[in-house]
Amino acid sequence: MHNKLKQSALLGKVRNVAAGIGFMSVVAITTAAGAITLNPDLREAVFFSEPVQALFAKQIDMLSDGSANAEMTQTNVSSPSESTDVGNGLGRNLVPIKFNAIDPSRPLSAGQRQIAQYLAKRYRVSQDAVESIVKLAYKVGRDEKIDPTLILAIVGVESSYNPFAASSVGAKGLMQVMPKIHKDKFEELSPGDWSALNPEMNMRVGAQIIKEYTRRTGSVKSALRWYVGAAVSGSDGGYPEKVLGLKAILDARFKQGRLVAQSRSSDKVSAAELKSRDS
Fold first, then answer.
1. Among 65, 135, 169, 184, which has the highest number of CB atoms less than 10 A from its own CB?
2. What is the C-alpha to C-alpha distance for residues 214 and 212, in angstroms, rounded to an integer?
3. Do residues 210 and 146 lie in contact, with contact meaning Cβ atoms separated by under 8 Å?
4. pLDDT for 240 beyond 80
C-alpha cells in the first residue's frame, strides 16, 4: 500500500512537470509570435530568412513546373465538411489546375530578365520566384490588355513580392486584392474554386480592377488613387507616384535589356561577316 502511494505521488509529479513544460512551450510560442508581429525589423528578418525564402520560391515555382497538378488532385473536396473557404481565400486549393499555365520552357526575354534581376535585388526575394512572377505578369498583361510593368509595379508597392501577404483590412496576395469586395471577379474566373492567395488569380483580378478604374476615371494615375482607396478616404499618401515611379524604373530596365541584347546580336553578326570575308 505504501509503495502504491509513493508510485501515485511520483506519477503526479511527472504529470505536473509535463503540464508545466507544455504551458511554458505555449508561453514561449505566444511570446515569439507577439514579438514577430510587433517588431517590423524582426518580422522582416524572419520573412527574408533562408528557410522562408526557400519555401516562398518553392510555392511560386509550383506555377511553372506543373508540380501542383498531383496536389490539386488530392485536394478535391468530397464533402461539405471539407469544403474550401473560397470567400476568404483560405482554402487548401491555392493553385487550381486551370491556372497552372506558365510555360517553364519559355525563357525570359533580355528585357524581362533585367526587370527580374532588379526586383529580386530591390525586394530581397529569390531570383527564381521573381522570374516566375515576371512571366506571370506578362502573361496576364497580354490576356487582360494591361501594361505588365504597371502590374509588376503595383505588386512591388503593395506586397513587396510576397504572394502570401495579408493586411489588417483583409487585402490579400501579390496585388493586395480585397476578396470580399471583388468576389464576383474571382467567381467569374473560376466558379466555386478560387483563392485570393493564388498568384495568377490574384494578379488577374488586380489587373481587371485597375483596368476598370482606368476606364472609369480616364487616367492610370486616377485609377491608382481609386485602387488604394483614396476615392473613399480622400488621401492617397503618394501611392500613384510610388507605383508610377517604380514602373518608370522597370520600363527603363526593360529597354536597357533589349538594347544590350540587340548590341550583342549585332556584334555576333559582324563577327560572322568578318569570318566569312576572311575565308
1. 135
2. 5
3. yes
4. yes
Examine residue 72 and state whether it is found in any structural domain, yes or no: yes
Domain that holds residue 256: 55-278
CA distances from 12 to 18, 20, 24, 72, 160 (A): 10, 12, 18, 48, 52
Q: What is the pTM of this model?
A: 0.63
Give 82's pLDDT tier (boundaries 50, 70, 90): very low
Q: Which residues contact 145 (CB under 8 A, 6 or more apart)?
A: 211
Q: How far apart are CA 275 and CA 279, in angstroms?
A: 6
**158-192 residues labelled b (16+ CB within 10 A) or e (exposed):** bbbbbbebeeeeebbbbbbbbbeebbebbeebbee
Q: State whether 74 and 29 are in the same domain.
A: no
In-domain check, residue 50: no
Same domain, 163 and 229: yes
Are 1 and 33 part of one and the same domain?
yes
Ranked by mean pLDDT, the top range of 91-95, 97-101, 223-227, 269-273 is 223-227
Domain-embedded: residue 270: yes
Q: What are phi and psi of 172, to 5 degrees?
A: -135, 155
Claim to verify: residue 135 and residue 184 sit in the same structural domain: yes
8 Å CB contact between 82 and 75: no
Work out the mean pLDDT of the chain and round it to a whole number.
75
- Please give the pLDDT value at position 68: 42
Q: Which tens digit of pLDDT belongs to each residue from 34-80?
A: 555 555 555 555 555 555 555 555 555 454 444 443 333 333 333 33
Q: What percent of the chain has pLDDT over 90?
A: 49
Pair 99, 193: CB distance under 8 Å: no
Cell for 266?
Answer: 549585332
Give the SS3 label for residue 177.
strand
Assess whether 173 and 148 both reside in one domain. Answer: yes
Residue 46 lies in a domain: no
3 & 83 share domain: no
